[in-house]
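Supplementary Methods, section 5.1.

A reviewer requested that the exact input to the structure prediction be made available. We therefore reproduce it here, unchanged from the version used in the analyses.
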Amino acid sequence: MPLAHELHRISTNVRFLTGSLLLPEYAAALAERLFLTPPAPKLPQRTFFDFLDAHASFVEHQGRQLASWRWGPMDAPAVLLAHGWGGHAAQMRAFVPQLLKAGFRVIAYDQPAHGLSEGKLTGLPDFAGALAAIAAHHGNVKHVIAHSLGGPALTIALSRGLNLQSTVLVSPPSDLVGYSRQFARWTWMPEALRRAMQDSIEERYGLRWFEIEVPRLAPRLKTPALVIHDHNDSFVAWAQGAALARAWPGARLLSTVGLGHGRILESDEVVRAATDFVAGNSGVASLAAPALPHPAPVY
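The structure derived from this sequence is encoded cell-by-cell as follows.
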C-alpha cells in the first residue's frame, strides 16, 4: 500500500477514535460519509474503447443522471449487467459478445456516484433503485447479471416487484452488517460509533438494515438464480455466496478456484456459464430439470 494512502488511513482512524470520545455526532457524520463514498476506480486505458460499439444514453434517477450503454437490436430481450461497489460498467464487458451471440440485447450502466454517473454519496438502496430505473427505461429486460454489491441490489429490486426470467449473481455478499463491522475494524471504529453510523444511514434511507438483509429477502424469491463465487475471493468470502444460494429457493451454486473477486468477471468459464444460464441452453437452466434439493447443490 502506498505510504501516502497508509498515512491518510491512519489519520482517518485517529479522527474516528478521538472524535467518538470528544465529538460523537461529528464522528458519526464522518463515518457515514466515508461509508457511502465509493473509492475512485482505477480505469485501465482500454476502458475508453470498451464502449465505442455501444449506444450511450443517460437515465435520470432521483435527480441524478446515470450513464448507460446498449448493444444489440431494440426488439431483442435484454440482459442487464450491474457492477458492484467501487466498480464500473466496463468491468462487465466480457459478457457482452457471448450474450449478443446468444441473441440478446445487452445493457450496462454505471451505478450512482460511480464512473460517468452523477453523485458523490451512494448506498445499497440507491443501487437497487438505479437497477430498477435502468431496467424500466430500456424495457424488456428479462435477465440480470450482477457482480458483488450489485447482487444484493438485485435481490432488493426483485423483492420490490422487478419481474425477471433469471438472474446470475457473481461474488455476492450476503452479510451487510458483517461488512460494516469489517469496515469498522479497518478504520479503528469503535462498535458504538459503527452503530451510530448505521443509525444515520438507516435514517437517511428511511429503512432498517435488517429489512434489506439478503438472507431475509432471498427465501421469498421465485426467480431462477445462479450464484457464481470463487473460493479464493479475499474481498467477499465464498461462504457468503454459498449462504445466499442456500437461502434462495432452487438456486444453483457454481464455485471457481483462483479467480478472486475481480478477475472472475473475465473468466471464459464464468461468462459461458452465465450466458448458458440466462439463455436456457444448459441443464442448470432447463425448465424440465427436476426440482433442486435444499440447500443449493454445488456443481
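The mean pLDDT is 85. These observations are discussed further in the main text.
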